[in-house]
Specification:
Blueprint (H helix, E strand, L loop, with lengths): L14 H22 L16 E2 L6 E9 L8 E10 L5 E14 L2 H9 L10 E2 L5 E7 L4 E9 L9 E12 L7 E12 L8 E9 L5 E5 L7 E3 L3 H6 L4 H9 L5 E4 L1 H10 L4 E3 L5 E3 L3 H15 L4 E3 L7 H8 L5 H10 L5 H5 L7 E2 L8 H9 L4 E5 L14 E5 L2 E6 L1 H4 L9 H19 L7 E4 L7 H16 L3 E3 L2 H6 L18 H4 L5 H18 L6 H14 L8 H19 L2 E3 L5 E3 L3 E10 L5 E10 L5 E3 L4 E8 L3 E11 L3 E11 L4 E12 L4 H30 L7 H16 L3 H11 L17 E2 L10 E3 L2
Parallel strand pairs: 1-9, 10-13, 10-21, 10-22, 12-14, 13-16, 17-18, 18-20, 24-31, 24-33
Antiparallel strand pairs: 2-3, 3-7, 4-5, 4-6, 4-8, 8-9, 11-12, 14-15, 19-20, 23-25, 25-29, 26-28, 26-30, 27-29, 29-32, 30-31
Protein name: DUF6049 family protein
Organism: Streptomyces venetus
Pfam families: DUF6049 (PF19516)
C-alpha cells in the first residue's frame, strides 16, 4: 500500500524557534563547508575529531529504553528518558557515555515501519547528539552487568522543527582495550511525536476494547432444579481475580474512551459463577466452585465501567466467521447456529450489564475478509463488518476514513492495520512496551498530518490481549488523549462517517485470504460433528416434558464449539466437541428398554410385559413402544404382526407395557421391541427376545381326565368297605358309639374327593413338570429397576 504523503508545513512552530534554527544553520554553514573538504577516509581518531563514529562490528552493548515521558511532549515540557545499558561483550567498556540523538522528521507512515524494524542497528543514521550536560557517563561497563540511566532534557533543547514524528535515538559510546577509540557500541531508536499546539483538524479515533475469553463452560449441568453449571476448568476464575487478564482489562479501561466489544458467553459464564457451580478436575470428578465473591466483584466493576459507554456485542461464543464461510456453509444447520448466537444476546448483556448493546457489527478474525466471509457475516443480521486495511487495501498516498459502502446495504469499517497491530508480540519487558506505545502514537500523528481533511480511524487490536499488552494499550490511549491531534469517537459514529470517494470498496477475492489464517480454521469435520449433535438433540427433545433443561445448555455449548478461540487448538477443540456429543448420548441412553431373556408362553393367548426405564430427572412422553413378531404365523401381537402402545414415564421410574399375544403353533418366535417418537423416528436401540410357545393338546387333556376318573372310583370303593364293616358290629354298642359312627359317615360324605384332589396336585408338580408360571402384570409405574436381562425360563400367564 502506497504511503507517500509529506507532512504539511510548519504553521504550528513559533517564530522564536524558527529564527533560532535559521541562525544556527547560517552559523554552521562555514563549518560544514570545511568538513566537506576533509578526506573521505580519515580515521575516527584523526584531526582531533571528538564526535564518536559507529564502527564495524559494533553492537556489543544493548540499550533498553524503559520509559519516555511525556510520550508526546509539547512546548515547555521536559523529556525524560530512562532505561538500562548492558555490556554483552567479553571486554569492559571504558569511558562509556549515553546521549540522546534527534534524527530528521519521518515523512511517511511506511518510514516509521522501516525504522521500527532497525531500531537497534548501530550502523544506521543516528542524528545529531543533544550533548552537553544531557549525557550520562559510566567510567567502566563490566561485561554482563546492566547499568541504569536517566536523562532529562527540556523539549526546547531537542531542537525539534515542524510538527511531525522524529527519530529519538539513545546511544552508548565508549572504547575497549582492543579498540580504545570512542565509537557507538549500542543504540535504541524510538519515536518522538511532536505536535505542540492544537491541530486545526483532529483525527477522530475509535479504539475497540475487546472483552473475550475462551470456552470455559461444559454442556453438562447438575440434576437439581437449579441445573448447577459445570466448568471445564478453573481458568476463568484466575482471569477475573485481582491481577488477572480480564480483571486488568476492566480496571485499565474504566477511565478510557473506548468502545467495548464483548462476547456474551463470557458474561454468562461469570454470571453463572456468582451462584453455585461445579469445576471438573483433571480426573473427571467435579468439586464445588468457590469464587462467587470474585465473580460478583468483577461484574460489578464491569457494570460501572461500561455505564455511558458504547457496547458492541459479538454473537454468543464469538463464532469464527471465516471458518463458517469456508468450511461450514455446506453443512446443514451451521448458519442456523450463527443466527441463534445473535438472537441470544438479548438474554445476556442487557440482563447482566443493564445496557443495550449494538448487534450491528461482525468482526472476522484479524479483519481479513473475502466475499464468502462478508456474506456469512451479514447472514446473522449484522450490516457492518469490521475489516482491516491490510485485507481491504487502498492504493492511495494517504489513509482514508474507515467507513466505506461495499454494496448490498453493507458497510465495511476498515480498521488501520498499523495501529491495530502495534501491541502484538511479547511486551513483558518495559522497553518493548515503551517502543510499542511510541510507535502507535507516531503512526497516529503521521496519519493526521497527511492531509488537511478530518478523517475517522478505527483501531481493532488482538481479541485477547495479555496483561502487558493491555497495559501498553491503556498507556498509549492516555497519551493520545493528552495529545493535540486526535479525539475519541464511537464505533457507530465512525461507521456513519462520510466515506472517502477514492477509497477501495471492492472486497478481495477468496484467493487473497491469508494462508496462515486459513490453516488455523475449524475444519469441515467440526461442523459435521456439530450438525450430528444437533440432529440427536432434535430427536431427543421431542420426548422431554421440560425441553429447556436440555435444549438451552446444549445450544449454548454448540455455539462455543464454533468459537474463534479454538484457532490453533485443534486437539482441544476436538476434545470439547466429542465431550458434548458423548454427554448427550448418555442422556439419550437414560431412556431405554430393559433387556429380556426367553419368555415361555403356555396356551393360545397371553400378555407379554416390556419395561421402559427412565433414568432422567424429568419425565418423558410422546413415545410409542412397538412389539413386532418376526414369525406372525406362529405368534401374533395384538392380532397382527406388531402392535404399539403410547409410553409415558416419570423421571427416575420405569413403566411396564403389556401386549396381548396369540399363538397358532408350538415353537419359538423371535420378538423385537423398539421405542419410536410420535413422528415415527426410532428412539434408542431395539430389544430382541424369543417367545417359546408350549400349547396344551387334546391327548394330554384325555390323559388328565382318565386319571381324575380313576381317583373318583377308588374313593367310592373305600367308602362302601367302611360301611360294611360298621354293619357287622354287635348290637350291644351303646348309643354314643352309634352316634360317633354316624358322624364319621357324614364327614366322609361331605368331602368324598379330598384324596383325589391331593393326587391331582401331586401329579401336576411331579418330576419333569414345567417351572411355575409368572404373573405378567407388574405395577404400572415403579421406581427405576435393574436393567439386567430377566432370568431364563420366564413364563407368561394368560
Amino acid at each position: 500500500m502506497a504511503e507517500a504523503a509529506d507532512f504539511q508545513g510548519t504553521s504550528a512552530s513559533p517564530a522564536r524557534r524558527w529564527l533560532r534554527r535559521t541562525g544556527a544553520l547560517l552559523a554552521g554553514a562555514p563549518l560544514l563547508a570545511g568538513l566537506l573538504q576533509l578526506p573521505a577516509a580519515a580515521p575516527a581518531d584523526a584531526a582531533g575529531q571528538e564526535a564518536p563514529q559507529a564502527a564495524s562490528g559494533a553492537g556489543s552493548v544493548s540499550v533498553a529504553v524503559d520509559s519516555l515521558s511525556p510520550s508526546a511532549p509539547t512546548e515547555g515540557d521536559t523529556v525524560t528518558v530512562a532505561g538500562t545499558v548492558t555490556n554483552n561483550g567479553k571486554q569492559a567498556v571504558n569511558d562509556a557515555h549515553v546521549d540522546l540523538r534527534v534524527g530528521p522528521a519521518l515523512d511517511t507512515r511506511s518510514g516509521i515501519d522501516t525504522l521500527a524494524k532497525k531500531s537497534d542497528d548501530v550502523q544506521g543514521p543516528l542524528g545529531e547528539a543533544v550533548g552537553g550536560k544531557y549525557t550520562e557517563k559510566f567510567p567502566k561497563l563490566t561485561p554482563g552487568v546492566a547499568e541504569p540511566f536517566n536523562i532529562s532534557v527540556p523539549a526546547d533543547e531537542l531542537d525539534l522543527g515542524a510538527d511531525g514524528v522524529y527519530q529519538l535515538a539513545v546511544a552508548l559510546s565508549g572504547g575497549t582495550t582492543a579498540q580504545p577509540y570512542d565509537r557507538v557500541l549500542g543504540v535504541q531508536r524510538t519515536f518522538l511525536p511532536w505536535q505542540p499546539e492544537e491541530a486545526g483538524t483532529k483525527t477522530k479515533t475509535t479504539f475497540l476494547w475487546p472483552l473475550v475469553s475462551s470456552a470455559h463452560m461444559a454442556a453438562e449441568t447438575g440434576s437439581n432444579e437449579q441445573q448447577t453449571p459445570v466448568f471445564r476448568d478453573d481458568e476463568l476464575a484466575k482471569e477475573i481475580s485481582p491481577g488477572g487478564r480480564l480483571d486488568q482489562m476492566v480496571s485499565l479501561a474504566k477511565e478510557l474512551d473506548v468502545t467495548w466489544v464483548i462476547d456474551p458467553d463470557l458474561l454468562a459464564s461469570v454470571d453463572a459463577m456468582t451462584k453455585s457451580y461445579q469445576v471438573r478436575g483433571a480426573d473427571g470428578t467435579s468439586t464445588a466452585g468457590t469464587h462467587q465473591a470474585v465473580a460478583n466483584r468483577w461484574l460489578a466493576e464491569l457494570q460501572q465501567a461500561v455505564t455511558g459507554k458504547e457496547v458492541v456485542a459479538l454473537p454468543y461464543g464469538d463464532p469464527d466467521l471465516a471458518s463458517v464461510a469456508h468450511n461450514g456453509t455446506n453443512v446443514t444447520g451451521t448458519l442456523s447456529h450463527l443466527k441463534e448466537a445473535t438472537d441470544v444476546i438479548d438474554n445476556t448483556i442487557p440482563t447482566i450489564l443493564h445496557v443495550k448493546p449494538s448487534t450491528d457489527f461482525a468482526w472476522p478474525v484479524n479483519g481479513a475478509v473475502d466475499p464468502s466471509i462478508m456474506k456469512v457475516a451479514t447472514s446473522a443480521g449484522a450490516d457492518k463488518v469490521i475489516a482491516r486495511s491490510d485485507s481491504l487495501q487502498d492504493d492511495l498516498s494517504y489513509t482514508p476514513s474507515a467507513a466505506r459502502p461495499i454494496g448490498g446495504g453493507t458497510t465495511a469499517v476498515v480498521a488501520d492495520s498499523r495501529m491495530s497491530t502495534a501491541f502484538q508480540g511479547d511486551l513483558t519487558k518495559a522497553s518493548a512496551s515503551t517502543l510499542a506505545e511510541q510507535r502507535f502514537l507516531a503512526q497516529s500523528l503521521a496519519l493526521g498530518l497527511q492531509t488537511g481533511k478530518q478523517r475517522s480511524v478505527v483501531v481493532a487490536p488482538q481479541r485477547m490481549p495479555t496483561v502487558h499488552q493491555a497495559q501498553a494499550m491503556a498507556d498509549a490511549l492516555k497519551a493520545l488523549r493528552l495529545g493535540n491531534w486526535s479525539e475519541s469517537q464511537d464505533l457507530a459514529a465512525a461507521a456513519k462517517a462520510k466515506p472517502d470517494p477514492s477509497a477501495n470498496t471492492k472486497v478481495p477475492s477468496a484467493s487473497a485470504y491469508p494462508s496462515s489464517l486459513r490453516k488455523q480454521e475449524l475444519p469441515r469435520a467440526a461442523f459435521e460433528q456439530i450438525a450430528r449433535t444437533q440432529n440427536k438433540l432434535d430427536k431427543f427433545k421431542v420426548v422431554l416434558t421440560r425441553q429447556s433443561r436440555v435444549v438451552t445448555p446444549f445450544g449454548r455449548a454448540m455455539n462455543r464449539e464454533m468459537s474463534v478461540s479454538w484457532r490453533g487448538q485443534g486437539i482441544a477443540g476436538v476434545g470439547y466437541r466429542v465431550g458434548i456429543e458423548s454427554y448427550l448420548d448418555g442422556l439419550i441412553d437414560g431412556v431405554k428398554l430393559i433387556q429380556k431373556s426367553e419368555t415361555k408362553l403356555s396356551g393360545r393367548s397371553a400378555t407379554i410385559p416390556v419395561t421402559v426405564q427412565n433414568n432422567l430427572v424429568q419425565g418423558v412422553e410422546h413415545l410409542k413402544l412397538r412389539l413386532t413378531s418376526k414369525n406372525p404365523t406362529r405368534l401374533k401381537i395384538g392380532g397382527a404382526a406388531y402392535d404399539e402402545q403410547p409410553v409415558t414415564v416419570n423421571g427416575g421410574h420405569s413403566q411396564s407395557v403389556k401386549f396381548t399375544t396369540s399363538a397358532n403353533a408350538n415353537g419359538r418366535a423371535e420378538v423385537v421391541a423398539q421405542l419410536y417418537t410420535e413422528d415415527g423416528q426410532k428412539y434408542g436401540g431395539p430389544v430382541t427376545f424369543d417367545v417359546k410357545v408350549t400349547e396344551v393338546t387334546a391327548t394330554v387333556m384325555l390323559v388328565i381326565g382318565g386319571g381324575v376318573l380313576l381317583l373318583v372310583l377308588a374313593g367310592f370303593r373305600m367308602y362302601t368297605q367302611r360301611k360294611r364293616a360298621a354293619a357287622r358290629e354287635t348290637a350291644e354298642d351303646d348309643a354314643a358309639g352309634e352316634d360317633d359312627n354316624a358322624e364319621g359317615q357324614v364327614g366322609a360324605a361331605q368331602n368324598p374327593e379330598a384324596p383325589g384332589e391331593r393326587l391331582e396336585e401331586e401329579s401336576q408338580a411331579g418330576p419333569g413338570a414345567e417351572a411355575p408360571e409368572q404373573r405378567s402384570d407388574p405395577a404400572p409405574d415403579t421406581a427405576a429397576e435393574n436393567a439386567d436381562p430377566s432370568g431364563p425360563g420366564e413364563r407368561v400367564d394368560r
